[in-house]
Amino acid sequence: MKPYMKVSLAALAIGVGVWVGSVYSNTAIGAGTIQPGTADDPVVTKSYVDQQIQKALNGGTNAGSGSSAGNNSGSTGTGSTGGDTSLPPVVSGASDAVEIVTVKPGQQLIGASGAEFIVRSGKAVIVSEGTNGVADLTDGVDLTNGQAAPTNHLLSFPRDGRGISVLDGNKYSLTVMVRGGYSLK
Q: 32 pLDDT band (50/70/90 cuts)?
C-alpha cells in the first residue's frame, strides 16, 4: 500500500471517529434534562426520610409527627423543612459503647461472648482454655493460648472464658479498647 493511501485512510478514520463521537455526545447531553423537583425527579427532604425510617422501625405504623418515644434532640437539620427532624430511637441492646480498660501485670482481661478488644499499648498474650482461641479480624487468623496479641488489631472473642493478659516478665500495663462484656481477674 502506498504511503499517501495510508495517510488518507488514517485521516478518514479519525474524521469518522470525531463525527461519531459528536453524534453520541449530543445524545448523552440530552439524557440529563430532567428538572429536579418534578414528578420525574422528586426532591426528598430529610424529614420525609426520617418519617419513613420511623415507619419501618415501628412495623409500618405511623407514629405521628413528634410523638416518638426517645425523641433525640441532636438533629442536625438546617433550615425549615416543615417536618419532624427527630432521629429514630436507638434499639435497646444495640449499645456500641467502647470502654478504655487498663490491665496491670498479673491481671487477665476476660471477654464475654461476642466481645471485641483492641490492644492499644503494651505487650499482650492470648488466654484461652482449650485448643480454640481468639479471632484476629485484622489479619484473619486464629490466635491460640499463649500467642502474642498484636497491637491495633481487632480481636473477637466468640465464647466466654477467653481473654488477654500482660506478657510474663513485662512490668508495663496494657491499654485496651473494649466493646462488649468483660471482667478483670
A: low
- pLDDT confidence of residue 90: 37
Position 31 scores a pLDDT of: 57
Extract the C-alpha cell encoding 171.
Answer: 512490668
Q: Edge-to-edge strands of the sheet including 134-136?
A: 98-103, 174-179, 115-121, 154-157, 134-136, 141-143
Whether 95 has a pLDDT exceeding 70, the answer reads no
- Whether 166 contacts 174, CB under 8 Å: yes
Cβ contact 181:126 at 8 Å: no
Residue 101 · residue 123 · CB < 8 Å: no
For the cut 60, the answer to whether the pLDDT of residue 65 exceeds it is: no
Contact predicate 175/115, CB 8 Å: no
The answer to whether the predicted template modeling score (pTM) of the entire model surpasses 0.70 is no
Long-range contacts of 160-163, Cβ-Cβ distance < 8 Å, separation of 24 or more: 160/110, 160/111, 160/112, 160/113, 161/110, 161/128, 161/129, 162/110, 162/111, 162/126, 162/127, 162/128, 162/129, 162/133, 162/134, 163/108, 163/109, 163/110, 163/111, 163/117, 163/126, 163/127, 163/128
Helix (H) or strand (E) holding 19: helix 3-30
- Look-up of cell digits 416518638: 68
Asked whether residue 35 carries a pLDDT value surpassing 80, the answer given is: no
